[in-house]
């Protein structure tokens, strides 16, 4: 890590390299490591250190942007020069009213760093994998997956006096347990590695693989379906991306365009973007340096708010809600701290009260095919089960589905009383932990459109 003092020196120096009317710079500095395993053996152990310097300059309303992964002063000066040159060839952006001006006292203290997680070594990850593999061998299964952890240092500064800085870390694990004709899956992520019981996770994945052995084929059709939090989170994530995105809303492309203040889903559903939730990945500011705040998106089924960054807010004649993903961002602002209020039934009750239906562990390869109506398609994977007379009886070959998310949430049977943090996979980009806190969700008449061979 660079440290707050040195990062401030870099950003202050970079802003002096331009004569633009306004300038904003950001530094994303990270260290992350990953141990991947397959066929009950570790086959990859990697460590990455990288930095990203980004700069946006504004000459009036002409904005230029450039970035580099070098923090060398010569390279930073060159990158700022590129941004200057790009800006001079841009059309004026009428929505640009200046970079956000934030006072230092506006930021709320948030715990984003855990020293134990930051020190989680390659040897510790290997011991964790050993625990997972031992579980697989005990059940005559084969384990696949990864364990990774990382630390990120983030600094946003602009010529308006905004200075935002934070250090955050996380650990992530995913496990596939495979039998001859079945698989089971779990994934988790936390700030504190001590909050994860890797042995219990491995056992859960193993039991899913064992329970789904010798899966049966079910015909396509509409079924009562219970979606565990890992699957259920995708309903809400897509709503965040396409429905409560201020850009799609203002352009009339969102389902709630013209519908704020009206009921859109079952009254038992409330969705809040809460960047301070103790069971989520708390973080104090967005990627324009604007302080985050709790924002109710859906209150008892009624659409209440959408989220904005500085550009979409200016175009709408309102204020940013602190949801910028970066600058510029053609996709628009997105809530990344979604929490869904719990339901009234325990997970076991949801199953016990199902006469005939399906239990879905997770989705695979989902895509939105109608962003305005929020219709999506995909498949089940790694643990799909038949429920008969309130009991899980057998595994089911995976099913393809095409469904409308708004329609599903209006056919809500109930939700579980327990909410879990579903951590997003770190992927191959910058290390920034995010996730959705949600319950298991039971939907009536979920539309499964086809079957698979596995």
From TrEMBL:
Gene Ontology molecular functions: metallopeptidase activity
GO terms (BP aspect): proteolysis
Domain Metalloprotease TldD/E C-terminal stretches: 221-450
Gene3D superfamilies, per database record: PmbA/TldD superfamily
Entry-linked InterPro entries: Metalloprtase-TldD/E_C, TldD/PmbA_N, TldD/PmbA_sf
Cited Pfam families: PmbA_TldD_3rd
Domain of life according to the entry: Bacteria
PANTHER family: CONSERVED PROTEIN, TLDD PROTEIN
Protein name, entry field: Metalloprotease TldD/E C-terminal domain-containing protein
